[in-house]
Amino acid sequence: MARRNRTTELGLEAIAIEGGLIAPEQVLKIAGAERNAKTAADYGCPKGTNLADEITRYFRIGQALWLDYSKIDQPTVTQTARFARDLLEQAFGFEDLSGPKDHHDGARRYRIALEGKGGHVPIVVAAPVEDGDGFSKAMPEFGDGEGGRARRNPVVLLQDWLNASDGFYWGLVFAGDRVRLMRDNASLTRAAWIEADFAAMFRDEMFADFTAWWLLTHATRFGNPGQPPSSAPLEQWREAGMKSGTAARDRLREGVEDALREMGQGLIEANPELRAKIEANEVSLTALFEELLRTVYRLIFLAVAEERNLLHPRRTPRAARDLYESSYGFGFWRERSRRRVARDRHFDAWEGMKVTLRALERGQEMLGLPALGGMFARGNTPVMDASKLPNRRFLEAIYRLGYLKQDGSLQRINWRDMKTEELGSVYESLLEIHPRLAANGEFELDSGAKGNTRKTTGSYYTPDSLVETLLDSALDPVLEKAEAEGETAEDKVRAILDLKIIDPACGSGHFLLGAARRMADKVAELRDPDAPDRQAGLRDVVARCVHGVDRNPMAVELAKVALWIESVSPGQPLGFLDANIRCGDALLGVFDLEALEQGIPDDAYKPLTGDVKEAAAYYKKKNKDEKKGQGAFDFDSGTGAMPPRKLAANLSTIRRMPEDTVGQVEKKREAFEAWRKDPDRWATKVACDFYTAAFLLPKVEVPENYRRSAVPTTADVWKRLGGGQVYGPLEAAAVDASEEARAFHWPLAFPDVLIGKGGFDVVLGNPPWERIKLQEQEFFAGHEVADAPNAAGRAKAIKKLAAAEEGSPDRRLYDAFQSAKRQAEAASAFARISGGDGGRYTYTGTGDVNTYALFSEQFLNLLSDSGRAGIIVPTGIATDATTAPFFGHLIDKRKLISLVDFRNDRRIFPHVAGLLRFCLLTIGKIKAEEKAQFACLLLDFEELEDKRRSFELTADEIARINPNTKTAPVFRARKDAELTASIYNRVPVLINEAKSGEARNPWGVSFMRMFDMSNDSHLFRTAEELAAMGWELLGTDWARTSGQVDNSPNFNLSGGSEANANQERYLPLYEAKMMWHFDHRYGSYPPGKTDNTRALPRLNEDQLSDVTFEPTPRVWLPKSERDRKLRNVPNCSYFFGFRDITNTNNERTAIGAFVPDFAFGNQLPLIFFEERLKRVLTAGFAANFSSLAFDYVARQKVGGTHLNFFILEQLPILPPSAYSEDDLGFIVPRVLELSYTSHSMAPFARDLGYEGEPFRWDEDRRAQLRAELDAWYALAYGLSREELRYVLDPKDVMGEDYPSETFRVLKNNEIKKHGEYHTRRLVLAAYDKLVTEGMRPRVEGYR
């Protein structure tokens, strides 16, 4: 039986739980289910039977079967399989067990002894092992056979099969009369199972244990074939437990914060001299808080190590263990903390814990404690080590770290099964908390929650399901390739341990832990399939493979702690991680030493906040002059800097040093520090600091002596590299500025990886999604500046701070803000340096720079040629115009492997907006014939299981769909991808920048946003204002005779070219919501209404039938201003405009129409055509724009709420050459009748050769005309009838459960109005009529 765990505390002796499969508390709830008729029916009991009686009956049946099995001397696999089959069929409700069955997947073989529920419950069976563990005994029958793994144990076999299968999650593995319940580990990060010992249950009459196991693993709990795996009760229980765990994590964070506050307050109360030093600024309160954090790290490490039995070496004498557990361990103090009487004013508790902590630094034989070193080094907490702490404060802190209140009861925190990642997220959320000592001596913790919500609520935590899915695509293929390259098991282990993994924004190390576990599992199984030592494997993987970087030094410590917790091996010291987990800003600093050869970019000297322009200009000119005619520095022949290859070789030697004892770890640390401080390496480091300091240091004055500059230039870089000396104060300032900004020079930090092997094998992470530009509300969180209602109010409040007295708190806050603002500006300037000038961000350093975009490019740059990167970032990385160059680069270079896009509606990230979309992006080199994998608009991981949602696209297909940006299209389902790709194979895009001449822009279109509703609002006037100014409403315009006195204050109306030279006019300002397909009178503002509104009242039948009626706008503006906008475009008396603001969830997405001679707001952009085009052709363009086929494609391309120009330019639209005279004869009369419904559109009608009156508004007639046009364009786009049915409603073709939708809102609205999907009936009928008349779907492409 496996070692006991928390189930024993719940009264279950024969059931053990390992890992976080289902929480012990959840198992207890299951065992305590009501024994009523509903529960009996749920478990398939015959009607009228009593559930308790049924369980009793099954217990006796199982007991009889076990008694027969227990009499067998050394049972075989066959005998054990018979026992398992009989027990499951006769006592656990399985009716259709079959087997054995062999499954194959390439070279992998999975031999499953039994299968239940049509293969949805795999059951692996192994014989018991005398004096051993049948679960861990590797046997040939569990291996892959030829070409694969020769042997594996039954647990690994079942886990492999569950992981490889998509249709089910859960299975059972028997080892004699013990059985384990296991699950697909796609969302697990540690080994996890629930085990039952039938021998103990049946021999010792443990009916309660049997009841719990029966209720947990009855056949009905595994779900039914044909249903999604998520519907199984087991899965639902697990999900409920995870939700409960999320709530517990939030409470744990509160408990840890309380513990920090209690210990901080205790220090202040018991050590008056410490309080005096803090108030005198002799001791930093921030440094003290960091010591408190480190102390809590240590306490939690102890709790985890004790409960996982990892603290004492295996041969530790019982007496030493007992002494530790009875008087010194975390468990001892936790139990003591429950007794309130122990929380007195004495100080012995903390002094006793200090004994334990000191013992863990160097070892203590009496307590059986090994020397761990690392996080227990005494120099890390000097103030805490020298201070007293009252029992009442320390034990209250221990209590907060030991217990949680849940549902009104006190529960001990399960540190044993607590995921280290969850623990890390709790502490990571505390890193943004700031301590404060109030005047009354209260030790306070200020979260500044208003500006730091994301940082203080644990939303750093990346759900396991996301991590594991990313590991599947980014890590597993690299692992498989490394394993395949080795011939022997030793070769395979060596290949795996040679892999280098990094998270450049590692935080608490979530991704690193997940990757390390997978790698350690492989290593352990290869070393010893019979008894894999995962802990030893983890220790080796963490030491040799895992790397991380984070800007926050406490986060770096936290990542080390997390890795130590996972990799600690009994009897061995904590590994040396200083060379692996580094502190620095991964985005700021030198990435390639060749940048030093090129010299500092001139744009480093652009004036920033606080700079003097003359000084900045001086340094820029100086730098430019120094680079002119200068040769590049040669590292290999230079005398001052260490050559890159030597940098790499020296660090590789240090990494290979052993660390089996504290002394060896210390020697390794000393060697690493000597390497860091080597004079030659230091010269290169200073040169790199010069490079970054050129951006960071203020340029405030022109130096009197050019040799005594305050800001480094290229000459300083080259001189330092060449072994020369630079002005001392300049070097000191540059080094200080770079270190304060935490500039991180990659080739100096990891030369053995980046220089020695050309990059990392795997790059993983979920980096920050933040703008580099300093956000005032976040910086001033908790201050009145952040509470200001708007930007103007904040500016006023900041100005007030600037006027405060020098040295006052307000002035210090202002100075800190100016410094942070300048540093943010410097980081932005650094990011914007072009690749040609040595910049790091060739594709993402543009626009309002966001860190997620920079990290995406950084992930790519860190990769070796054969490596893979997995990153979680907003989906904008693949769809936005600003990041289009980066995504286009991935497509052009065939480096996109997969993209899985999620909507956050169901709060996968609980504290992130529901409208946000994010993606799992996997990058790496793919072959020319390989396709990138996609899945879009997923709401949860259940939808990822639906293969109909996934699709593939080649680089050429992506380039055809989005030829200008190479951005990713957004398809809900595979059918959408296939249909859209086929349309693009035939129909060209509106503008193809890759082509030249007329083929580039066949329609000769150009775009205009006429008036910005915010920036141009000073031009706008309401009807009330115009009337008061003496203007007169004439039709749609306001007019007055030139020369009249304008009574409006401070208003000057410039003249323009009016029809009446003596008359000035105001034109209606038309907004997007006022128009619809073929309808410029869709919405109108009620008279007198001047406030903006999302939706306008529709015109009624009488108004639409009145050909003189025009909609009322909210405001008007001078015609002269409108005409000024049109001075460079062809003379127009009507326009074609479209709605910029839109959504794929609306009734329609692409909405455009011809509109009258008015002025237009920015959300109604205009499209102008080349004058060479016949006007009748533009009618074809309008009909195409309004067609369902066009709109269907637009819905695949719009990722947000705007139909941007770059999206529109890449939509498929028939070229002018597509239209014959017969085609126009069909299209133009229909467009004319639909569009010409009022006199304001008369110029349009005249251009089409029609001189008559406007057409009468007739809803039924208009629906028919539009249906005929929709049908014509469906055929012109090449859609078959079945494809047109799909466009109208995917569920009509693919079934009600198909995971796509097109015009759902249109359908629902029409069913509500007409009692049917009116458009579908009309369009399909029109399609059939056209086909009958001889028109066929277009097969060949348009030219």
TrEMBL record:
Where in the numbering of this chain does the Type II methyltransferase M.TaqI-like domain appear?
545-777
Kinase as UniProt keyword: no
Name a GO molecular-function annotation: site-specific DNA-methyltransferase (adenine-specific) activity
Q: Which Pfam families match?
A: Eco57I
Q: Which keywords label this protein? A: Methyltransferase, Plasmid, S-adenosyl-L-methionine, Transferase
EC number(s) stated in the UniProt entry for this protein: 2.1.1.72
Instruction: Give the superkingdom in one word.
Output: Bacteria
Q: Which GO terms describe its biological process?
A: DNA modification; methylation
Listed under catalytic activity are: a 2'-deoxyadenosine in DNA + S-adenosyl-L-methionine = an N(6)-methyl-2'-deoxyadenosine in DNA + S-adenosyl-L-homocysteine + H(+)
User: What is the name of the protein in this document?
Assistant: site-specific DNA-methyltransferase (adenine-specific)
Write down the species.
Croceicoccus marinus
